[in-house]
C-alpha cells in the first residue's frame, strides 16, 4: 500500500496530534471550477460524467491541483445506489434528480435488490481504484454514500421535495414497510462503502442530507438507527490501517450526543451549530468536521479570513478538527475565494496545535 504523504486529515479524524488543521470542502470537485465545467460538457451529462471512471478521476483531482486541500473526495452522486436498484434516475435541467419508478408500495419494496458494488456499481469502484492510483499517496481519498434515510426520501418522493409528504406518510402509516426498506438500504450502503474501502478509499462519509427534517423520535428511529447499522457493518481495518468514518446530518445539531454514540469517528457539523458548544457536548468521543457558512465564500477575502479565524477559535486548542464548510460549496463561487479560505486555514491554524 502506498503511504500517504499528507495524512493530516486521517490523523485529525482519529484525534491524533497534527501540525495544523486539515481542510477540504464538500462538493470541492464541481461547478464552481471552470475546468470542471469543461469536462462536464465533454461528458455530455452529469450521470455520464459520474459513470466514466477516467473523467470522474480527472474532476476529483482538479481541486487538488488548484488548491492545497488535504483530502480528495470521490466524484460521484449520493443517488447511485437507488439508480443501481433499477429506479431510473435522471437529472432534469433546473429540477434536480428524478426517478422514473419511485417506491410507493410493499411490492415495490420487496423487489428492491441489494446491488453488488462490483457489478451494478462497478463504475464507481473502478473510479476509486483509478483515483487512488493517480493520487500516488499525495493526500487521502474520501469515499461516500447517502444515508439510508436520505436515499429513501428520494426513492419514495421520486424527486426532491420540500414537504416530504409521501415518504413521511409511508413512515407514519406503514412503519414496518419503511423499516424493511431502510434495512435493505443500510445493507446496500454498507456493501457499497466496504467496496470503496477495499478499492482504496482512506476514509468514508455518510451524508444524511434530510435527517434534519424529522422530529426527534423519528430521527432516532428512522434515520440515525440505520446510519448506526451501516457503521456496524463497515470493515474499517484495511491492512492494519484504520479507515476513519464520518457521519453528517444536515440540521442534526439537536442530536450530537446520540450521533456520537453510533461508532463513527467524526461528525460533520452544519453552519447553524456552534462548534465550541458541539465540542463541549461530544467531549473526546468523536472528531468534528466543519463548519463555516457556505455563503461566506461570496464575501471578500478579508471577511473570509475573519470567519475562518472564528471557526478555528471556536473549536480551540488540540486535534480532532477538520475544517470544512457547513454544507457544499455553491456553483457560482469565485475560486479565488476558496483559495482565500484554504490559505487562511493553513496560516491561522498552527497556533492551535502547538503540542504537535
Descriptive account of the structure:
The protein contains 15 helices and eleven strands. Strand 2 and strand 3 (96-99) form a beta hairpin. The protein has helices spanning 8-13, 34-43, 46-50, 53-66, 80-84, 106-110, 122-135, 148-157, 165-173, 175-199, 216-233, 256-260, 275-282, 301-315, 335-348; strands spanning 72-73, 89-92, 96-99, 141-146, 203-208, 237-238, 241-242, 245-249, 266-268, 287-292, 321-325. Helices cover 46% and strands 13% of the residues. It has a single domain (8-353), classed as TIM Barrel. It has 356 residues and is α/β, with parallel strands linked by helices. Helix 14 crosses helix 15.
Can you identify the CATH class? Alpha Beta
- The run of helices and strands is HHHHEHEEHHEHHHEHEEEHEHEHEH
Order of strands, main sheet, comes to 1-4-5-8-9-10-11
Please give the number of β-strands. Answer: 11
Write the layout of secondary structure elements.
Elements: H1 8-13, H2 34-43, H3 46-50, H4 53-66, E1 72-73, H5 80-84, E2 89-92, E3 96-99, H6 106-110, H7 122-135, E4 141-146, H8 148-157, H9 165-173, H10 175-199, E5 203-208, H11 216-233, E6 237-238, E7 241-242, E8 245-249, H12 256-260, E9 266-268, H13 275-282, E10 287-292, H14 301-315, E11 321-325, H15 335-348
Parallel strand pairs: 1-4, 4-5, 5-8, 8-9, 9-10, 10-11
Antiparallel strand pairs: 2-3, 6-7
Helix pairs in contact: 2-4, 4-7, 8-9, 8-10, 9-10, 10-11, 13-14, 14-15
